[in-house]
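Hello forum,

I keep getting stuck at the same step: I have a sequence, I want structure tokens, and every attempt I make locally crashes halfway through. Rather than fight my setup again tonight, could one of you with a working pipeline run this one for me? It's a single chain of 131 residues.
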Amino acid sequence: MQAICERNYVHLLTMLPDCDTEDLTYRFTAGLGLSYRIQIIESARYTSTILVEQVNLSTPDYLKPSMTVRLYHDARMAEVTSSQNAGALAPSYEYPNAKMRLRNEKHMVNLFLTEWLNFCLNHNAQPIAST
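Reply #2:
Ran it on my machine without issues. Output:
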């Protein structure tokens, strides 16, 4: 899990030229018809919190990935703190549980972020900064 978070941090810094400015939004297009937005919602000395979401108009909301990611600049790690507007993720879950989360849900969501960032980098996603 730590290696995944470290890799995500490096990839996010590659994609975001400025991740220290609050209320800054980057828009990306990757592939045909895939649009994403990364919004910096909080920035402090050692941490930044960003919102990553797909913004395609033709895709239903329930199929659009959305996650909140905390960047720890001192540890050089990026961790998904919530996904699909479902609240904070626990390190692990008993199974079965009321929300039917996987035992390793947090690990899987961070791995999804890794795959998404790799996809964007491999498809030359270019940021368009807006405030």
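The two ends are 33 Å apart (CA to CA). If your local run keeps crashing, start a new thread with the error log.
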